[in-house]
């Protein structure tokens, strides 16, 4: 039976979290959008007398994400009021509000320890019956929820949306060992019928299906082409429009995904394998690490392989 989702909470308001919240909100589902409390207010906020004690400043990351969604409306197909259905908040002050939602989606940075710590915090406010899922690109669903109770793990699974959620129809569902079958089937039906997704069930293996293949393709292209001195634009012209993929050429895709996120995703396979040949493919090129160190994270930071227009 289709899962009934009246309200949802998305935790993490970055590239994917804000996009997922927008997609849910456009489907008529009110959404909390939570993020961490930023360390310091900006100079401008301080000048206005705002400190981290003020709720608006404490919820700045999520509030800014909602403002950006409102201004740039991610899809012409979204209705005009979609952003009004997203309520921003922060993890320190507003996490208890998840007791009133039917689905909590974890969409924070691709790091096992961060996700484990977050799930423990979520479980402290979780009410049985609420589905909890992770948007991880490929971290083990089992490992992530290892410290949680059996009851929680029966309600926990991977729901892997693709970037950008407004256009990408694919959604991988990744059940854990204990996930209840009716939660998997109920979420599948919900994601297909209410969110318009094409759902594929994947096993809990490093990077599941799509990113196991996709990361491989991107890394091989990167290593081959950069080593041989091809220009970024040339490679994109061939791997994008010429292959009938106007928006998903190699380097543009990396900028869209986020260079830091891509490094985490590639590392996930690298660290999970003992196979030397596989390690050689999934070793992240030094050039990418250098970009992360410089803060060239792709579209989200304004500079990646391309400068954001
Ligand atoms: P992002 O860098 O845009 O956003 C990450 C968010 O995590 C930020 O809002 C940040 O404030 C928050 N965060 C950072 N440290 C945290 C902490 N200690 N506790 C709680 N929150 C913290 O990343 P993203 O691209 O939105 O990726 C989020 C998740 O979605 C990752 O698991 C990623 O692998 C997955 N994903 C990403 C893509 C993509 O193309 N970028 C696609 C599919 C899945």
TrEMBL record:
Source organism of the structure: Paenibacillus validus
Shown stretch of the complete protein: 1 to 309 of 798
Highest taxon, organism lineage: Bacteria
Occurrences of domain 3-hydroxyacyl-CoA dehydrogenase NAD binding (ranges): 7-205
Annotated 3-hydroxyacyl-CoA dehydrogenase C-terminal domain residues: 208-306
Family: Belongs to the 3-hydroxyacyl-CoA dehydrogenase family.
Protein's recorded name: 3-hydroxyacyl-CoA dehydrogenase
């Amino acid at each position: 039976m289709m899962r009934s989702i009246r309200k949802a909470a998305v935790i993490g308001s970055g590239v994917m979290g804000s996009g997922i919240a927008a997609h849910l909100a456009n489907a008529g589902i009110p959404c909390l959008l939570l993020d961490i409390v930023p360390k310091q207010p900006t100079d401008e906020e301080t000048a206005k007398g705002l400190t981290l004690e003020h709720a608006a400043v404490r919820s700045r990351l999520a509030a800014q994400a909602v403002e950006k969604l409102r201004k740039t409306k991610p899809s012409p197909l979204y209705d005009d009021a979609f952003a009004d259905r997203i309520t921003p908040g922060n993890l320190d002050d507003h996490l208890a509000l998840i007791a009133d939602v039917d689905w909590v989606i974890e969409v924070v940075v691709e790091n096992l320890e961060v996700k484990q710590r977050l799930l423990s915090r979520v479980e402290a406010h979780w009410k049985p019956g609420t589905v909890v899922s992770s948007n991880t690109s490929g971290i083990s669903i089992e490992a992530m929820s290892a410290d949680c109770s059996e009851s929680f793990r029966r309600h926990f699974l991977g729901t892997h949306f693709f970037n950008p959620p407004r256009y990408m129809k694919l959604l991988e569902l990744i059940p854990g060992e204990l996930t209840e079958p009716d939660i998997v089937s109920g979420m599948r039906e919900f994601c297909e019928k209410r969110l318009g997704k094409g759902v594929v069930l994947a096993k809990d293996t490093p990077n599941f299906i799509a990113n196991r293949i996709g990361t491989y393709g991107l890394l091989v292209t990167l290593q081959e082409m950069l080593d041989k001195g091809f220009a970024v634009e040339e490679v994109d012209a061939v791997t994008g429009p010429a292959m009938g993929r106007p928006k998903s050429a190699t380097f543009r895709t990396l900028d869209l995904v986020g260079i830091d996120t891509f490094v985490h995703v590639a590392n996930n396979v690298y660290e999970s394998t003992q196979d030397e040949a596989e390690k050689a493919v999934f070793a992240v090129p030094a050039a990418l690490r250098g970009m992360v160190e410089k803060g060239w994270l792709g579209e989200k930071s304004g500079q990646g392989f391309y400068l954001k227009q």
